[in-house]
């Protein structure tokens, strides 16, 4: 993954270009940012089969967000691996796939049950505790272009060691912290120390008011990251 | 009083009270319809009538010379299609059917787009798949959005953004069958029992209670045609008296005669013969004598095309193909023949061998929703656990978008849970039906129809256990399928 800022506003806004073309050989075209990610269900945008996807504006619609947790009931990581990863399984070679565990619809974080062992999600197949090792197994088999780390209040699972276990794809560190500005700042500082390619700013759309968002975003985007890193605010668009 | 629930599996409700209630409802319906018609006639109805009348007369004058057969003027010869047979193999034929909106190649399969749409597929995809004619259900369209609105919006083609050909049914069959089928037979409540009396056929037409507002409605042959004239499909169907084939006796005979009486009312009511083709429907159950009378009666009317109705309703396969064989043999060579409600690939191959040209059925899309794919070997149930790790496409020999992109394992995780599952399976299944139609057409044109039939049967019955009815039908069709049949111990006569 390569990200370059192409223009800065007088304030903090920036325009950039994201090149995903990577080890997986997919998504050959650069994507201009700010960019919207299309939400998906089991990897495909709702009701839009891949033959119809090109009728959406291009290349703006070439970035798809998916939840690996949609595949908890199958196909198994082994099967997905033998198919050749998610791009191959979905027939979407021209598209960038971004893995985020939470999807705000079918796979909601369940923080009360999240513990040291793993993160808990409310899914269509019931409540599921997902261990980092399981998550990494899914990521390895799916081979997304970008993937965000499994998130909780403290991003304990982002470590250099774990990043090395990934089968390619750029890692985005997850920044959470709920509605607490200090927590968010601390989280951002910790994540910024890690060897990650970008940041997933999550923990939104869980009951906070619209007025609370700007200071929370401000707290994490202010100075912790270098300019050439992509900050992605994923849940905002579908809430 | 004849009512549909006297028939077959429909339970006969003989309480006087119930019958009186039906009678009252029907009278109310008739009054309502007549009042509406009077109101319409007193306003702009007359003008319309005059305009259409003069137009029709002009059309008749245009083509009159060719319609005078042995001194007798045939008044019903206006048509909006051309049917050119491009190739034959014994009774089978491949033709080019030119309709106002599309030049079709037959044999062809028509998917059913109940409310102006085939669930989960766009009209672009249907074109891509190679779909030539879509069937619209008059009953559903007349209830919602109503034929008046469709007309106002420029007809069904425009309304559903479908540039190719369309066919609408008369609406009668749906009223009778859908309303009754919606009732749960195993657990009839009082409300459901009263629903049984909702559809009723008399000489006037089909009376039913609107499922939208509960008001009684009467669908006459005239009204069915008026609605279909407003919807504007390339092919419209005459209102027939629908009876299940599994019934025998005087009801079948009555239905056949009534269908013939109604065809004249349909022809008289048809105001757009230059843009829409009215097809007559051969009825007569499984009785060869009745079928014969009906075919002859319809052929006398010199209609643009003919349908074989009242089949695919649970009759045994031998009776089914024999009726098709009898009708196709008696119908004119130069007119399209449409077997209604037939959609199993095997049935289509058999009917095509017997000289039929058009088919429709909800089966390919309905079975897709239940997770079943059509494949040369028969069907593939994607719900089956064995599919969970199967990395092959649904059908490795299929060139459709789904088979080019997806594994059985992926489809397995979608079917019956996600809309995308039935979307992708419907796509494949319709592609399969279109490919079957293309293969039938080209094999007949290229003079290798028997080879095609044999390879089709070989894939479906690799052990050679081709059903006896298929063997019998192919015998009559003059197609030698001995190479793909295991020798029967007793067998064919
Ligand atoms: Zn296919």
From TrEMBL, chain A:
InterPro entries in the record, alphabetically?
Queuine_tRNA-ribosyltrfase (IPR050852), TGT-like_sf (IPR036511), tRNA_ribo_trans-like (IPR002616)
**N-terminal signal peptide:** none
Instruction: Output the PROSITE patterns linked to this UniProt entry.
Output: PROKAR_LIPOPROTEIN
Question: Superkingdom of the source?
Answer: Eukaryota
Annotated tRNA-guanine(15) transglycosylase-like domain residues: 12-221
One Pfam family this sequence matches: TGT
Fetch the PANTHER family from UniProt. Answer: QUEUINE TRNA-RIBOSYLTRANSFERASE ACCESSORY SUBUNIT 2
Q: What name is this protein filed under?
A: tRNA-guanine(15) transglycosylase-like domain-containing protein
Q: Which organism is it from?
A: Xanthoceras sorbifolium
UniProtKB/TrEMBL annotation, chain B:
Catalytic activity, as annotated:
guanosine(34) in tRNA + queuine = queuosine(34) in tRNA + guanine
Ranges for domain tRNA-guanine(15) transglycosylase-like: 91-460
Residues involved in substrate binding: 169-173, 240, 283, 310
Q: Where is the signal peptide?
A: none
> What Pfam families does the record point to?
TGT
- Residues that bind Zn(2+), according to the entry? 398, 400, 403, 428
Q: Which InterPro entries match?
A: TGT, TGT-like_sf, tRNA_ribo_trans-like
Give the highest taxon in the source lineage.
Answer: Eukaryota
* Location of this chain's protein in the cell: Cytoplasm
What name does UniProt use for this protein? Queuine tRNA-ribosyltransferase catalytic subunit 1
Organism the protein comes from: Xanthoceras sorbifolium
């Amino acid at each position: 993954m390569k990200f370059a800022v192409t223009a800065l506003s007088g304030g903090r806004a920036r325009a950039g270009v994201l090149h995903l073309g990577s080890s997986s050989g997919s998504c050959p075209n650069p994507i201009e940012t700010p960019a919207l990610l299309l939400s998906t269900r089991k990897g495909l945008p709702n009701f839009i089969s891949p033959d119809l996807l090109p009728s959406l504006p291009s290349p703006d619609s070439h970035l798809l967000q998916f939840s690996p947790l949609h595949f908890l009931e199958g196909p198994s990581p082994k099967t997905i691996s033998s198919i050749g990863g998610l791009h191959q399984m979905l027939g979407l070679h021209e598209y960038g796939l971004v893995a985020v565990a939470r999807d705000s619809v079918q796979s909601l974080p369940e923080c009360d049950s999240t513990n040291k062992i793993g993160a808990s999600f409310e899914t269509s197949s019931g409540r599921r505790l997902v261990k980092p090792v399981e998550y990494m197994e899914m990521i390895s088999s799916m081979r997304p272009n970008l993937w965000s780390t499994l998130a909780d209040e403290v991003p304990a699972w982002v470590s250099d060691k774990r990043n090395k276990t990934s089968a390619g794809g750029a890692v985005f560190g997850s920044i959470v912290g709920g509605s607490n500005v200090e927590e968010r700042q601390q989280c951002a500082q910790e994540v910024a120390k890690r060897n990650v390619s970008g940041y997933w700013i999550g923990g939104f759309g869980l009951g906070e008011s619209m007025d609370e968002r700007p200071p929370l975003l401000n707290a994490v985007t202010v100075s912790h990251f270098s300019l050439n890193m992509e900050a992605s605010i994923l849940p905002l668009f579908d809430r | 009083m004849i009512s549909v629930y006297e028939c077959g599996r429909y339970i006969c409700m003989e309480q006087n009270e119930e019958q009186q209630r039906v009678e009252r409802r029907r009278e109310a319906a008739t009054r309502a319809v007549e009042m509406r018609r009077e109101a319409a006639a007193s306003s702009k109805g007359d003008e319309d009538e005059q305009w259409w009348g003069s137009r029709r007369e002009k059309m008749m004058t245009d083509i009159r010379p060719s319609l005078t057969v042995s001194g007798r003027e045939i008044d019903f010869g206006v048509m909006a299609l051309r049917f050119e047979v491009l190739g034959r193999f014994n009774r089978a034929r491949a033709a080019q059917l030119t309709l106002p909106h599309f030049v079709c190649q037959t044999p062809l399969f028509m998917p059913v787009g109940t409310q102006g749409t085939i669930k989960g597929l766009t009209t672009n995809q249907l074109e891509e798949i190679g779909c030539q004619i879509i069937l619209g259900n008059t009953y559903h369209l007349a209830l919602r959005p109503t034929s008046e609105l469709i007309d106002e919006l420029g007809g069904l083609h425009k309304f559903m953004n479908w540039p190719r050909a369309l066919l609408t049914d008369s609406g009668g069959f749906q009223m009778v069958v859908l309303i009754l089928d919606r009732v749960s037979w195993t657990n009839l409540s009082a409300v459901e029992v009263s629903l049984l009396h909702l559809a009723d056929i008399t000489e006037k037409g089909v009376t039913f209670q609107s499922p939208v507002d509960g008001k009684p409605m009467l669908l006459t042959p005239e009204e069915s045609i008026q609605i279909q004239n407003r919807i504007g499909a390339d092919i419209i169907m005459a209102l027939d008296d629908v009876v299940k084939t599994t019934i025998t006796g005087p009801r079948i005979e009555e239905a056949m005669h009534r269908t013939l009486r109604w065809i004249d009312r349909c022809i008289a009511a048809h105001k757009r013969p230059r843009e829409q083709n009215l097809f007559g429907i051969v009825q007569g159950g499984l009785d060869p004598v009745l079928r014969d009378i009906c075919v002859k009666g319809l052929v006398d009317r010199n209609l643009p095309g003919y349908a074989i109705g009242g089949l695919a309703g649970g009759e045994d396969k031998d009776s089914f193909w024999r009726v098709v064989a009898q009708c196709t043999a008696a119908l004119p060579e130069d007119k399209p023949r449409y077997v209604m409600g037939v959609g199993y690939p095997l049935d289509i191959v058999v009917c095509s061998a017997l000289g039929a040209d058009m088919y429709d059925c909800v089966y390919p899309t309905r079975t897709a929703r239940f997770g079943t794919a059509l494949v040369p070997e028969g069907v593939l149930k994607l719900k089956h656990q064995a599919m969970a790790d199967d990395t092959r496409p649904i059908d490795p020999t299929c060139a459709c978008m789904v088979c080019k992109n997806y594994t059985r394992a992926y489809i397995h995780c979608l079917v019956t849970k996600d809309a995308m599952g039935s979307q992708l399976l419907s796509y494949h299944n319709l592609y399969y039906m279109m490919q079957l139609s293309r293969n039938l057409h080209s094999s007949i044109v290229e003079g290798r129809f028997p080879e095609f039939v044999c390879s089709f049967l070989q894939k479906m019955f690799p052990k050679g256990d081709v059903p006896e009815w298929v063997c019998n039908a192919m015998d009559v069709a003059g197609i030698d399928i001995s190479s793909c049949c295991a020798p029967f111990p007793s067998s064919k006569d």
